[in-house]
TrEMBL record:
<dbReference type="InterPro" id="IPR007808">
    <property type="entry name" value="Elf1"/>
</dbReference>
<dbReference type="GO" id="GO:0006368">
    <property type="term" value="P:transcription elongation by RNA polymerase II"/>
</dbReference>
<dbReference type="InterPro" id="IPR038567">
    <property type="entry name" value="T_Elf1_sf"/>
</dbReference>
<dbReference type="GO" id="GO:0003746">
    <property type="term" value="F:translation elongation factor activity"/>
</dbReference>
<keyword id="KW-0479">Metal-binding</keyword>
<comment type="similarity">
    <text>Belongs to the ELOF1 family.</text>
</comment>
<protein>
    <recommendedName>
        <fullName>Transcription elongation factor 1 homolog</fullName>
    </recommendedName>
</protein>
<keyword id="KW-0648">Protein biosynthesis</keyword>
<dbReference type="GO" id="GO:0008023">
    <property type="term" value="C:transcription elongation factor complex"/>
</dbReference>
<keyword id="KW-0539">Nucleus</keyword>
<dbReference type="GO" id="GO:0008270">
    <property type="term" value="F:zinc ion binding"/>
</dbReference>
<dbReference type="GO" id="GO:0000993">
    <property type="term" value="F:RNA polymerase II complex binding"/>
</dbReference>
<keyword id="KW-0805">Transcription regulation</keyword>
<keyword id="KW-0804">Transcription</keyword>
<comment type="function">
    <text>Transcription elongation factor implicated in the maintenance of proper chromatin structure in actively transcribed regions.</text>
</comment>
<keyword id="KW-0863">Zinc-finger</keyword>
<keyword id="KW-0862">Zinc</keyword>
């Protein structure tokens, strides 16, 4: 005869859920929370992050693994590069 499984062994066998990624973000220009939405169209080769308040936007070319967080962070990186270039040109 077999032994009954305990509850802890049943819980340990279940896979853990992956955390959900954000889909709306804070605008780097106007600082409004949850105002930046990302749109990805792989058929047209177009990915855009745009603010609904100040209407600033960033476009890039996506690939199969592109997620909204990738587009937003590319936009932030481009803003930082532009600010660094502006600081260097002032000197």
């Amino acid at each position: 005869m077999g032994k009954r499984k305990s509850r802890s062994s049943k819980l340990a066998a279940q896979p853990k859920k992956a955390p959900k990624l954000e889909k709306v973000f804070t605008c780097p220009f106007c600082n409004h929370p949850e105002s930046v939405k990302c749109l990805i169209d792989l058929k047209l080769g177009y990915a855009e992050a745009s603010c609904l308040i100040c209407e600033e936007s960033y476009c890039t070319v996506p690939h199969n693994l592109t997620a909204p967080t990738d587009i937003y962070h590319e936009w932030i990186d481009e803003c930082e590069r532009a600010n660094d270039d502006a600081r260097r040109s002032r000197r």
